[in-house]
Description:
Elements: E1 3-5, E2 8-10, E3 14-16, H1 30-40, E4 43-46, H2 54-60, E5 65-70, H3 76-88, E6 94-97, H4 107-111, H5 116-121, H6 151-157, E7 162-167, H7 170-178, E8 183-186, H8 200-211, E9 216-220, H9 226-234, E10 239-242, H10 244-275
Parallel strand pairs: 3-10, 4-5, 5-6, 6-7, 7-8, 8-9, 9-10
Antiparallel strand pairs: 1-2
Amino acid sequence: MRTTIQGAEISAPICIAPTGFHRLAWPDGEMSTARAAQAASICYITSTYASCSLEDIVAAAPRGLRWFQLYVHPNRQINQQMIQKAESLGFKALVITVDVPKVGNRRNDITNQVDLMKKLLLKDLGSPEMGNVMPYFQMSPIDPSICWEDLSWFQSMTRLPIILKGILTKEDAELAVKHNVHGIIVSNHGGRQLDEVPASIDALTEVVAAVKGKVEVYLDGGIRTGNDVLKALALGAKCVFVGRPILWGLAYKGEHGVKEVLDILKNEFHTSMTLTGCRSVAEINQDLIRFSRL
């Protein structure tokens, strides 16, 4: 099951997607998630909206493979500070989320009157019991004006490979390659941005075809079983990133709950490989997929 992403070896192509506010699920929050990822020898993408400081996350799992996910802030200096901090702390890639020029119409949040920015960030994250968190949490708007030309500015300030998260079309995939990014995460933001866009798995094939092997393509969204991992790899993903199930495991039993979720997915994926005759991830290919014809 071993493979590599951006040249780094991982024990299986099952890694952790960036999700925010892990302390809502468990007291140690992202520190527990990072420890579980390190123990599993897989990659953990830490969110801009982590509820622990980057320093504490790194200290909790100093040997772990970490990427840093960035929501682009309107203040360029703040972006630069965040990127340079992540690079100095040993994060190995910069993941820029490009599908949130504004927050989508999240009806459940409206119905339940959920406003994390006001009710969590300004209240709880500023309290002593929440520990040392990043100062930009206090006000963290997302820049709606980010465009392709901005990528050269990011590339000028960091040596980290740049991954774009939130690509769903071949046209955007081609533009990503044209602008010299190192990877793409095919993602619909967990279905939380625009209703009725394609599922990530449905957009994967055209993105893989568009990049023609020039950059690595990953997928997040909808991964619930080892079979899902196998399907994603068969359709051309190098690796999948798991979101909600990690939070479910974290809420259940902290670090050990995350480890159990990862173990379940790894074991199921191993079984799926075995029963389809794949002795390594290199042998997983589109011949395993049968498309239904309506």
